[in-house]
Design a protein that fits this description.
By secondary structure, this protein is an alpha/beta fold. It has 2 domains: 147 residues, Rossmann fold (3-Layer(aba) Sandwich), CATH 3.40.50; 106 residues, 2-Layer Sandwich (Dihydrodipicolinate Reductase, domain 2). It is 31% helix and 24% strand. It is built from 7 helices and 12 strands. The longest helix is centred in the middle third of the chain and has 14 residues. The two termini are 19 Å apart. The chain binds NADPH dihydro-nicotinamide-adenine-dinucleotide phosphate and ligand LZUJQKHR. One of its GO terms (biological process) is diaminopimelate biosynthetic process. Its main location: cytoplasm. It is found in: Cytoplasm.
Length: 267
């Protein structure tokens, strides 16, 4: 493995970005070479209030940052529109992306997969970096073999831009791989208030709660006659995501293809 991994990060002032900077600072093998931010062009990370004391330049122009910085890995923790643009730029520059940003469409994921293949550059897109959440998704996939009726309730802070969460979408996708397509609920059910039954993925329902007080929680509820099974994961601190970000940065150095979900890198 390379001795020092040069990392650049977009979204340094964000809730996740700030935690990720601390993780990079604490990891001997990682070196922050620069950041892409929406403001503070020409400044340094150590000059920005609230950010860790790291000597690394800030760029608002992502293209300039990719041109100038000698990075091995690019971490994006911004928003779907920005994250998608940044990820394409990173791949074009052969800088391996580790993407935590959620809310990409299926078409965007397919485009990034194709671009990673064309560029022969490894990329990890992780809907959730928390090991507990990855296990919650895996356990849900196991349970879905035996329970075909399932609803997902995801609960997040009210600053979240995308709904449903990336984790809920990925959970539904994993369940879909093992569950026969099925319309759930009463065949004649009608919503008297639009949206009451949530989003429909192949008959499964996803409900998104947005309230202050939450960070990230998800319940996957299975039901059949006489019993229910609930698989629940709760992130009570954003540190829960950081060992996964670190793992993804290490792993992306070892691959030359597209990976969607940390479970694909775990033994
Ligand atoms: N995969 C995972 O495990 C996790 C993923 N996430 C995802 O990570 C993303 C970030 O979440 P979170 O930190 O909570 O969000 P925040 O809103 O706290 O942070 C996003 C940051 O991105 C910045 N930003 C916006 N546009 C740009 C741009 N063009 N260039 C550079 N920076 C930009 C924002 O700047 P400004 O403040 O000026 O708007 C902000 O500082 C979301 O998509 C979220 O869903 C979150 C938690 C875990
Ligand atoms: O925005 C968040 O906070 C989170 N986003 C990710 C998602 O959309 O699943 C991961 C986690 O749920 C926190």
């Amino acid at each position: 493995m390379k001795e020092t991994i040069n990392v650049m990060l977009a979204g340094p002032r964000g809730k996740m970005g700030t935690e990720a900077l601390k993780m990079i600072q604490q990891t001997e093998q990682f070196k922050l070479v620069g950041c892409v931010d929406r403001k503070n062009n020409g400044m340094n990370v150590h000059d920005i209030e609230g950010l860790p004391n790291i000597d690394a330049p800030i760029y608002t122009d992502a293209e300039e940052a990719f041109d100038r910085l000698n990075a091995d890995v690019f971490i994006d923790l911004t928003n779907p529109e920005t994250g998608y643009k940044h990820t394409k730029l990173a791949l074009h520059n052969h800088i391996r992306p580790v993407i935590g940003t959620s809310g990409f469409s299926e078409e965007q994921l397919a485009d990034l997969k194709e671009l990673s293949h064309i560029q022969q550059t490894g990329i990890v897109i992780a809907p959730n970096f928390a090991i507990g959440a990855v296990l919650m998704m895996k356990f849900s996939q196991m349970a879905a073999k035996y329970f075909s009726n399932v609803e997902i309730i995801e609960k997040h802070h009210d600053e979240k831009l995308d709904a449903p969460s990336g984790t809920a979408v990925k959970t539904a996708q994993l369940i879909k791989e093992v569950r026969d397509s099925k319309i759930q609920g009463h065949p004649e059910e009608k919503e008297t208030l639009e949206g009451a039954r949530g989003a429909d993925v192949d008959g499964m329902r996803i409900h998104s709660v947005r309230l202050p007080g939450f960070i990230a929680q998800q319940e996957v509820i299975f039901g059949q006659s006489g019993q229910t099974l609930t698989i629940n994961h709760n992130s009570t601190d954003r540190q829960s995501f950081m060992s996964g970000v670190k793992f993804a940065v290490e792993q992306v150095m070892e691959i030359d293809h597209f990976v969607y979900g940390l479970e694909n890198l775990m033994e």
